[in-house]
Specification:
Length: 402
């Protein structure tokens, strides 16, 4: 009998295990792959993520490695106009967004966990529940025949979550767009300032941001090419298609970044999201079972809030379960439904709004350069809506003061 079983050793799964550990709760993390996966190469963590990382006790291990992003430059590919966006808070708040290596974040989280708390090559095949001393216990069936019992089961198993499907959550839907993400390496240094460069055109959005003086994280999103699915496992083909076709008219500096890509970190993936109303009205928990991260709220990357919100989930979930554990001296199964319900209600509306904001942001920025869309994007989105979004990302998920 395990106290807590977490399915998935991604950002949400590892962060949740760390949050629970700070309360004295041991969690077993099940990961289907053979090691930590870092698909996507890098990600941008906004202020809300750093607040969560501070609560988890690891922000000091990552922040010194990556400089804050202060400005962004957005180039309209049709008109050549360049708009600059400041990421510095009006109150002088020094905690700004930073782009970090995804593997560095995962390792920093995993390093906080006891040895053998992550069990790799562990594929979940089925879930059932049974009554045990007046409360619900999860029965987890693994592909190798192992059966695990848990007082709490948390699905952090990504967009196509087995746990979310068991809860009855509606499947994520395809946004109609795909994203290529890569890591460019310049052994002699790239010589660029630590600013975000973005390029917008009809159905396209591209950009890059330096991670350090030798590496640059870059992305390209577009309405999905018909043969996109055929390129998933062919990084050389992906790079060639971006340079020779989809981004051939982008500035030479962008093409040079793509040319320097580390092929082992290059990925193509369709952008999926869950309708926000399915999050608001859906079953995000049942008895002692719930979900977090992409398993709960997959969203498009247009606000860079997927990983950030997963870290928030971990702190909130860890706080609620941790309080119950400390008050009772152990995890009491019959209290878990109420405890998990509090977590769900704290997160439901926030993540639904992030999903909607991310989708709307992507739609506005890639919808073309007609006068109507230009007015909507430049006069309304960047001047008003974007400022609201920035304030929304300064959310404080709270501490883990047990």
């Amino acid at each position: 009998m395990e106290d807590v079983v977490i399915v998935g050793a991604g950002i949400a799964g590892l962060a949740t295990a760390v949050a629970l550990k700070r309360a004295g709760v041991e969690a077993l993390v099940l990961e289907r792959s053979e090691g930590l996966r870092a698909t996507g190469a890098a990600l941008t963590l906004s202020r809300n993520a750093w607040v969560a990382l501070d609560a988890l006790g690891i922000s000091q291990n990552l922040a010194p490695l990556y400089a804050p992003i202060k400005k962004g430059y957005i180039t309209n590919l049709d008109t050549g106009e360049i708009q600059d966006v400041s990421f510095v808070a009006s109150n002088g708040d020094p905690v700004g967004p930073r782009s970090v290596h995804r593997k560095a974040l995962l390792n920093a989280l995993a390093d906080q966990l006891p040895i053998n708390s992550i069990r790799f090559s562990s594929k979940l095949t089925a879930i059932e529940t049974q009554e045990h001393e007046g409360s619900s216990i999860s029965i987890i069936h693994m592909a190798d025949g192992t059966v695990i019992k848990a007082k709490v089961l948390i699905g952090c198993d990504g967009v196509h979550s087995v746990v979310a499907r068991w809860l009855g959550l509606a499947e994520p839907v395809y946004s109609g767009r795909s994203a290529v993400r890569g890591l460019a390496v310049f052994p002699q240094g790239h010589g660029l300032d630590n600013n975000v460069q973005q390029y917008l055109g009809l159905g396209r959005r591209a950009g890059f941001v330096p991670l350090n003086d030798k590496e640059i994280y870059w992305f390209f999103t577009c309405t999905s090419p018909a043969k996109g699915a055929d390129m998933v496992d062919e990084p050389e083909v992906i790079k060639r298609e971006v340079i020779e076709n989809y981004a051939k008219d982008l500035p030479p500096i962008y093409l040079d970044v793509v040319q320097h890509s580390d092929l082992s970190a290059l990925t193509w993936a369709p952008l999926m999201f869950r309708y926000p109303w399915h999050v608001v009205f859906g079953n995000l928990s049942k008895q002692n079972i719930t979900v977090a991260g992409d398993a709960m709220h997959p969203m498009t990357p247009d606000l860079a809030q997927g990983g950030c919100s997963a870290l928030e989930d971990a702190v909130v979930l860890g706080r609620h379960i941790g309080k119950s554990f400390i008050q009772n001296g152990q995890l009491v199964p019959k209290e878990m439904a109420v405890t998990i319900g509090k977590y769900v209600e704290e997160r439901r509306w926030r993540v639904a709004l992030l999903i909607a904001g991310s989708y709307l942001s992507g739609w506005v920025q890639q919808a073309g350069s007609g006068w109507g869309m230009k007015f909507l994007r430049d006069a309304i989105f960047y001047r008003f809506f974007y400022l609201i979004i920035i304030k929304f990302t300064r959310y404080d998920c709270g501490k883990l003061n047990f």
